[in-house]
């Protein structure tokens, strides 16, 4: 039996307006011009394309490997499973703390045997651990222990080297400074202003920006503005156990609600009096549409309709699979509604809106990747000249052994980028998302693969472009289109010619 969401019926007209295919072209143009200006981008324009909707076009010539765009995300998340490996700013996603804290924290959490789903719940433990002192510690014990680490470290059952507890603690306390780590300084880790112990930031600016944009509604701390912190915890647990794409959807709804509240407060202030209730009702929808505008630009389809069919699901079971996905989204929505529901923004809590938000991420999201400074640190040590290298490795090698192959894990997540999401696909793209050494945060970085002329469309590949023609087309069908780039047209012609030749050879005549 199909799940029915009462809000879908109650708010059908408002939902229809919110999900209108696209705002008027002039409004879209003005929005993107303002967005490009705010990002200080040079040389690109977003234009309407009759066949493919929006597209990004070069407004000047770009050279090969030249930076085309750095695009801050609208919303993004670090994968919960990645939090055990990387401590990053919850807003801009650059690494924070210190090299010592990054290494010590990871080793400490691993020593607790935490699973990925428990990392967020245990995040605050590290501070308590850092503040404790062992009874047998001496002022210089950590330095002495580090010199003996390779001798006293033992191998654990899984093959990794384990370290004395006091050494890991000293890394997290800042009492042990690794050789040459000052060359890889990181911003200090600042706790969430709401007291949740789950979000950390590189600066007060990022902490305030995240609080004002979405986190104040999604914080589980004492200062949270959520309707129910208990319900919010249940929602987050459900997302961790099922699909963290629900966390992105929650951020989007929170982002829209908070924008709406700011817009309404400014509207009432301009009125300088109490607005007539009828006039206010009309204004509320208009304000909600304005708050929703950044989200309205993204291409959307219902999640359960556009999600790729897993390899282990038979085509005969596709309908049942898509209904299960729909029910999963509805369960998540009900948990979120109990946590942060806002009556004036009721249409946002409809299954139709929720499904389209998640579908937008399914079709438009980009992997969030930030390289680890810990990897850079160990590579630097490895490149030191002798005997300096040997002296440094007396201290660092045991930590590298304890970390194992996971020493170089980067920050990983997913995000929606307003300008990057407007870039159309090509199997022979002229640009790609690629981080350079100086790109240390979660912004999308788009680089030219070859020279791009002024007026030429900037394209990227949504898939692995080296796959065979038919595999590419099958993957792109999930995005709702058949690729007609020059590479596909050429390979399609070759495939048709080959099929015709085979049929003629077998005596079937003309096709």
From TrEMBL:
Record keywords: Metal-binding, Zinc, Zinc-finger
Q: PROSITE patterns recorded for this chain?
A: SET (PS50280)
Report the superkingdom from the record: Eukaryota
Among CDD domains, the record links this protein to: SET_SMYD
Pfam families xref list: SET (PF00856), zf-MYND (PF01753)
> What SMART domains does the record tag this protein with?
SET (SM00317)
Name all SET domain ranges.
Answer: 42-463
Any idea what this protein is called? SET domain-containing protein
**Taxonomy-wise, where does this protein's organism fall, top ranks first?**
Eukaryota, Viridiplantae, Streptophyta, Embryophyta, Tracheophyta
